[in-house]
Amino acid sequence: MRVFAELSYWQQTTLRSVGVLLAVLLPAGAFVQLFLFKLVSFMHNRLGPNEAGPKGSLQLLAEVGKSLQKEDIVPEKADRVLFKMAPYLVVASVLLVYAAVPFGPDAWFTNLDVGIFYILAVSSISVIGILIAGWASANKYSLLGGLRAAGQLIAYELPMVLAVVGVVIQAGTLNLQGIVGAQANGEIFGFGGLGNPFVLTQFIGLAVFMIAMQAELTQTPFDMPVAESELVAGYMTEYSGLRFLLFFIGEFASAGAFAAVAATLFLGGWYLPGLSLTADYMNVVGPLVLFGKMLVLGFIVFWVRFTFPRLREDQLQRFAWTVLIPISLLNILATATLKVVF
Amino acid sequence: MTLTQRDELRAYAHHATDARVNVELETEGMTLNIGPQHPATHGTLRIVAKLDGEQVIAAEPITGYMHRGYEKLVEVRTWPQINTLVNRIDWVGSFSNEVPFILACEQLMEIEAPPRARAIRTILFELARIANLVLFAGDMALQLGAQTAAMYAFRDREYVLNLLESASGGRFHPNFDRIGGLKDDLPKGWIDDTRAALVKIREFCDEMDLLVTGNEIFEARTRGVGIIPADVALSYGLSGANLRASGIDWDLRRDGGISGLAYDDVDWKVWTHPDGDCFARYWVRLQEIREAAHITEQLLDKLPAGPIMAKVPRIVKVPAGEAYVETENPLGAMGFYVISAGDLGPFRVKIRTPSFNNISVASWVMRGVYVPDIVTILASLYFILGDIDR
User: Would you say A331 and A204 are in contact if contact means Cβ atoms under 8 Å apart?
Assistant: First the structure.
């Protein structure tokens, strides 16, 4: 880390930018290759991609290449500026989320004191991009998809925030690095060997967070904005080529981003019991640990996605307001009470 | 007051409450054109839906984008050639299309297929039903967003298609039924293969029960959605599982009094459901897959020996006259009204296809539902485009 500190400002910035891009694209690519290509094929009882590269491992490159070759079509009646801007907004929101996630004791892009607050705020920007895409496409299916995404935001954002509040109360900080530290230094009934990953105490919070995350990522059973049997492809209907690819990357990169946030909040982040919390080698091992935890959570997300049917928009609203929000409020109450008692 | 009127009044009251909001906000409806190319219509059906937000005010199905003029085409074909054409009406359960046409011809010629041909014909009829309804079960899940169940359906449908292929040579279009019997006898080992495949089909039904039927989301999306009361179902001329899901116990296999099939020799049951909603239609069809497997197994047990073809002249000439035969096809009651002038080909053929009537109820049942329910209702009414437009 001393090497990094000696670099000049522009060199640090460049390295940080490359790092964020890697942090976004590597998990996104891994999720697509592992889950969308291979896991789903296994679940569907079919082969999946197996021609491009050994065991289909280069399929991802083929898909990207295919998308780049396609014509970038803008519909005649579309609002050109907004139409072209929308996919970048979606991807930008994911980049901003990764900027605040810690990967090791010193491996972070920014160490904000209000990290989790910031993440919850910027992650909602992607919905604006989706809404813009739906509106600017001048297509009724896109419009319905965009509006559904906006309606969905109201349903899941509140439970997600409330689920995080429990963790924040227990850790006593909004700083993600602090939350990781609180879990690493915690004790289970006086036994400190394993730390205290918050999944043990905040399991309700984790469940609510995962459900809200499923909705945020527009994965089945909450994929109404892109419901392909109803709305063709929802807000993405009119997009092609690179812009479609950006939406696609945005979808899977935000799956990775939310998995990273959930792993940090509930599974101890980059820390693993038995490893050091401050040593330099954790800047290399930490990201791998975090990535492993992300894969576990990502697996659950895609497992649910490929198993369940889709809910209806009004059913999601009812579910969010009558089940998720009361449960997470009770969770906050219980957490706060126990925090005061112990 | 009938159920229909009460429903209608309820819909009006519902719209009246919405109307106040609409006047205050000055909203206006949106016309959404679903189709002719749309994933939910699996073919070229077009639905013009007037929407108020996500709610459907009125929806009208428009057909005719795939009209192939079969009724006219058969007039310039000879009797044996027509088989090839009618195969392509309901392309998912092709063999079942041949049966009513062949039976109508047999009725006019006053010949009867030998017992073995009748039994095998019934077996293949039921296998076509399985091939059709297995696809329905998967498609229903797919339209609701559950992809995995759809893949399982395609996987297990393959077992049945392989059987049809090994018997007739054609996976999709067997073209196996002949006036007076069947083209060939069954190949060697076919009966054992069929028994093995039926086990797989039963497993598929159990798998669907585990994966889809009991799923809370599936039930929330289908129960109470798209309710068709019995009187409406009858007045729109629904048939098949759509009618039985509305609680009407009517099955042409039992009630049709058809001589050329072997349903009277076996012990089976007609499934009905009192609810008339999308779930009922799904459930009835799932039971029908099991029942079809049950019928087939019994027929395989007591397959009579003997010839496969009655004595039919080399050049088929159907004597002048008229005949109408209706059979219980996978999609519903399919009928052929055949008029012969004693020539090499028919004078006129009118085809009554079940999907055409089944889809006509869509405009009635889709008022007041939400946009996602359009897809659920279409999937549960279960139509094949070729069967609507022929």
Answer: yes
Q: What is the reported pTM?
A: 0.82
Contact call for B141 and A306, based on CB within 8 A? no
CATH number reported for the structural domain that contains residue B316 in this entry:
1.10.645.10
Return the residue of B nearest to A143 by Cα: B53
Contact partners, residue B344, CB within 8 Å, separation at least 6: B78, B79, B315, B316, B317
Would the CB atoms of A140 and B32 count as touching at under 8 Å? yes
Picking from B63, B53, B49, the residue whose alpha carbon sits closest to that of residue B22 is B53
In which domain, by residue range, is B254 found? 70-363
| Span B285-294, average pLDDT | 90
Which is it for the CA torsion B79, B82, B83, B86, positive or negative? negative
> Cis bond leading into A197, ω under 30°?
no
For residue B246, being part of any structural domain is answered with yes
Shortest CA gap A309–chain B (Å): 4
Domain ranges in chain A are: 73-341
Establish if B58 belongs to a structural domain: no
Q: Do B146 and A220 touch (CB under 8 A)?
A: yes
Confirm whether B375 is domain-assigned: no
Of A45, A220, A229, the CB nearest to B39: A229
Query: Which amino acid would we find at residue B360?
Result: S
Number of domains in chain B: 1
Dist CA A221 CA A227 (whole Å): 10
Residue B150 lies in a domain: yes
- The mean predicted confidence, pLDDT, of chain B is 85
Residue among A140, A231, A312 whose CB faces B221 most closely: A312
pLDDT computed for residue A189 by the predictor: 66
Contacts of A322 (CB under 8 A, 6+ apart): none
Q: Per residue in A190-215, pLDDT tens?
A: 666 667 777 777 888 889 998 988 88
